[in-house]
Amino acid sequence: MTSLFDRFEAAFMPNYGVPPVALERGEGSVVWGVDGTEYLDMFGGIAVSSLGHAHPALVEAVSKQVATLAHTSNLIVHPREVELAEKLLGLLKAPGRVFFANSGTEANEAALKLAIKYGKQTGRTSFVAAEMGFHGRTLGALSLTGKPSIRDQFGPFPLDVRFVPYGDADALAEAVDGDCAAVFLEPTQGEAGVVPPPDGYMARAREITSSHGALLVADEIQSAIGRTGHWFAHQADGYLPDILTLAKGLGGGLPIGACIGFGPAGTIFEKGDHGSTFGGNAVSCAAALAVLDNVDLDHVRTVAAELREGLEAISHPLLKGVRGRGLWLATVLTEDRSAQVQAAAQRAGFLVNALQPDAIRLAPPLVITSAQVQSFLTAFPSILDEAADG
Ligand SMILES: Cc1ncc(COP(=O)(O)O)c(C=O)c1O
């Protein structure tokens, strides 16, 4: 019989390659393959499955909503979108306005359109973003993405984007001038390898952009919704961006993105400036409300500390160190063997993500238990042994 992988390969465009595992179902932080194999999910569908799999509150919220009213379009208001926008603004503790999209890249497209409009209003034409930063795959978000391997072949782009080394505040200060409409930054670079900047970098970015009248856009698509132990990473860094973008963990597996403008940035769009048929659909909003009601930040901090301390206590020739924040870590290897680590982990019953040749991303569901963290920590040295040999 033809395997699911062969059928995938025959039916799909080759952009993802053929993934190494096929899953059928999940419960909490545990997932089962189509062949019945059990795994501990240590990467949460790329930091998306905040409540793990089949969380009763998410299942109930989504089931109830889809059975009541799934879609209205944005020509009609529905209660869930208003409740969700208000809930997010409450957690943000800052006056703002919300636009809902369906994904991270779309949230950033909205942010970019706000920045372009702001630039036209104030006579600014350039943008600044970080080398190796990732903001999405649609053309606007891609033009801000500083990863040459995924960006260059689709250029040139019609925007003047200047890339600066991430984490270097002096380089940022040099690049931002009175012509800069907006600076786009991740508070920790996710796709680059879960790379946090030096302490104080984002607050400096806030000072630099404010002093030149440029907007600061914080792309928290990967870092928000409790992932770092805070609702939003910027809350721990002591600054407020002009624009914040969210997606991934917000819907806990249902597609939703958000672009939030604070203060004057919340009213740059006028009627007709932007839109989305599905953005803010009732089912995704119901899912996001369930996520926000059920993420337990104290729990995240506790298990995150256990995971980090446990990893830091492991001494292994293939393990160089650990970086990241909260339940969003990269184990950094001494050699480019992340593919071997991912494969060895899978054989041992753990799903991890070979993010960079020398970095493994861990972004488990925020509901992962201490016992599950311990089981991974116990298995990790022999996973590294196997990867070092293999
Ligand atoms: C920081 C950041 N921005 C934007 C995106 C794009 O999000 P999406 O894949 O939902 O379009 C990602 C996805 O990895 C991301 O990590």
Q: What is this structure's SSE topology?
A:
Layout: H1 4-11, E1 23-27, E2 30-33, E3 38-41, H2 44-47, H3 56-66, H4 79-92, E4 96-101, H5 104-122, E5 126-130, H6 139-143, H7 148-151, E6 160-164, H8 169-175, E7 180-185, H9 201-212, E8 215-219, H10 233-237, E9 243-246, E10 257-262, H11 282-294, H12 297-312, E11 319-325, E12 328-333, H13 338-347, E13 350-351, E14 353-356, E15 359-362, H14 370-389
Parallel strand pairs: 3-13, 5-6, 5-7, 7-8, 8-9
Antiparallel strand pairs: 1-2, 2-3, 4-10, 9-10, 11-12, 12-15, 14-15
Bound molecules: pyridoxal-5'-phosphate (PLP).
Features:
binds pyridoxal-5'-phosphate; 390 residues; 15 strands; 19% strand; single chain; alpha/beta; four-stranded mixed β-sheet; seven-stranded mixed β-sheet; Aspartate Aminotransferase, domain 2
CATH topology title of the domain at 58-294? Aspartate Aminotransferase, domain 2
- Helical content stands at 25-40%
pLDDT < 50 stretches? none
The general outline is globular
Mean pLDDT: 98
Count of individual helical segments: 14
Task: Explain what you see.
This protein is of the alpha/beta class. The chain has a domain at 58-294: Aspartate Aminotransferase, domain 2. It contains 14 helices and 15 strands. It has helices spanning 4-11, 44-47, 56-66, 79-92, 104-122, 139-143, 148-151, 169-175, 201-212, 233-237, 282-294, 297-312, 338-347, 370-389; strands at residues 23-27, 30-33, 38-41, 96-101, 126-130, 160-164, 180-185, 215-219, 243-246, 257-262, 319-325, 328-333, 350-351, 353-356, 359-362. The strands form three sheets. Strands 4-10-9-8-7-5-6 form a seven-stranded mixed sheet, sandwiched between helices. α3 packs antiparallel against α11 (282-294), α4 (79-92) runs parallel beside α11 (282-294) and α13 packs across α14. It is globular, with a radius of gyration of 21 Å. The model has no long low-confidence stretch (mean pLDDT 98). Pyridoxal-5'-phosphate (PLP) binds at residues 103-105, 108, 134-136, 186, 190-191, 219, 221-222, 247.
